[in-house]
Amino acid sequence: MATDLALEALRQALSLEKEGILFYKEAVEKVKDAAGQKIFLSLAEDERDHQRILSAQIRSLESGKGWSRFPETEGLEPIKGAPSLFPKGKVDVQKAVATVSTELDAIRFGLDIENRSYEFYFKASRETKVAEAMAMYSFLAGMERDHFNTLMMRYEGLGGPAGWRY
Fold it and tell me: Closest Cα to residue 31, out of 114, 99, 103, 92?
């Protein structure tokens, strides 16, 4: 029963990562700026790494081997922070920039993907009693938080910090 619930959660997480990969690959094609393309390519590669970890975990549980350990997650403490990265919600972020461009739209969508992924992994890390699962979820939540911060810095660089008006 617990394994079935874990597998369901891992499959949902895998779906989020696949969505992220597809989005970032598409964003690279739409963004003209080389720095923006580099960010989106890097994020797509990170999402592929997350997909690899999740797929390996699913295979391990399905084969009856239990939760796997990953070198990336060794020695991690539980993720600290809040269950959401958006301090005022997605709507406020979207209102922050008056001028909309293709790259800004892509970044806002990416922020939403990263926020949803972070929330999912944060919640999963709090709900599990298995140390290996907590470490994996905490690692992935931390990575998604880093992605969010990278995108937010780019967003602010293009449109100004949230709340600024030009």
Answer: 103
Q: Is 31 helix (H, G, I), strand (E, B) or coil?
A: coil
C-alpha span between 58 and 67 (Å, rounded): 9
Tell me the residue type at 69.
R
Structure tokens that stand for 92 in this block? 């406020």
Q: Cβ(160)–Cβ(153) under 8 Å?
A: no
Residue 99 C-alpha from the chain's centroid: 26
Q: How far apart are CA 27 and CA 85, in angstroms?
A: 21
**pLDDT given for residue 160 in this prediction:** 63
For residue 70, give Cα distances in angstroms to 19, 53, 112, 157.
Answer: 23, 8, 27, 35
Question: What is the biggest distance separating any 2 CA atoms in the chain, rounded to whole angstroms?
Answer: 58
Q: What is the mean predicted confidence (pLDDT) over 11-18?
A: 89
pLDDT at 105 over 70: yes
Query: In whole angstroms, what is the distance from residue 145 CA to residue 105 CA?
Result: 19
Is residue 96 over pLDDT 60? no
**pLDDT one-digit tens code per residue, 44-78:** 999 999 999 999 999 999 999 999 888 877 776 66
Kindly give the residue spans of alpha helices, DSSP state H, lying in the chain.
2-30, 34-62, 90-95, 102-127, 131-159
